[in-house]
Fold this protein.
Amino acid sequence: AQKITQTQPGMFVQEKEAVTLDCTYDTSDPSYGLFWYKQPSSGEMIFLIYQGSYDQQNATEGRYSLNFQKARKSANLVISASQLGDSAMYFCAMRDLNAGNMLTFGGGTRLMVKP
Amino acid sequence: GAVVSQHPSRVICKSGTSVKIECRSLDFQATTMFWYRQFPKQSLMLMATSNEGSKATYEQGVEKDKFLINHASLTLSTLTVTSAHPEDSSFYICSARINGEETQYFGPGTRLLVL
C-alpha cells in the first residue's frame, strides 16, 4: 500500500523568498512517479513537476525544483523567488504503477505568500 | 500541456435528481480517465478509474450504482450522480493521462450542490 504524507498544513513565505514544501512517501514498489500539483482557489489542479523513481537528477521546471531523496523517501518541492500568485494549495502525489497508474494524494499544504 | 475540460463547472440540483458531469480530453486521446472527489479543505480522493470500452473500476466504499461512469469514446468520460442527496455535494474533478506519458492532466472541476 502507498502512503503520501505532507506534514505542513499551512505555510507562510515572504514574497521573493524561497520556500520548501515537504512530502514523504512510502511504497514497496521499485518503480514509481512523484508529482506536485498546485490548486488555486478556483479549484483546478495545475501540474507543476514530475520525478521518476529512476531519475538520476532532481527535476526542475522554472522556479520549481524537486528535492528528491530516495533513501529518505522524500520529495520536497522548492519554490524559488515566491510570488503572490503562488498562494494556493499544493498537493504531492504518487503514481501507482500496479494499479493502473492511479494517483494517491497527500493531504496538501496551503501556502500563503506575504507581500 | 494537455487540455482536459469538464462540464458543467457548477451545478445546483434538488435532492433526488440525477446529475451528469462530462470530462473531455480536448487535444489527445485517453484510454483511461480518473474521477476524484474533494470535500472542502481536504485532499482529492479517487472514486473510480474509467476505462474506454469497458467497465469502470471503483474504489472501495464508492457505490457503482450511485456513481455511474461511462467512457464511451477515447475523449469522453461521464460521471452520473444518481438520486443525488445533500451529502453528495462536493467538488468532482477528472483527470486523463496521455498514453505513454506519466503526467495526469486535470479538468477544472465541477462543484455540485444538492439542496
Summary: The two ends of chain A are 41 Å apart (CA to CA).
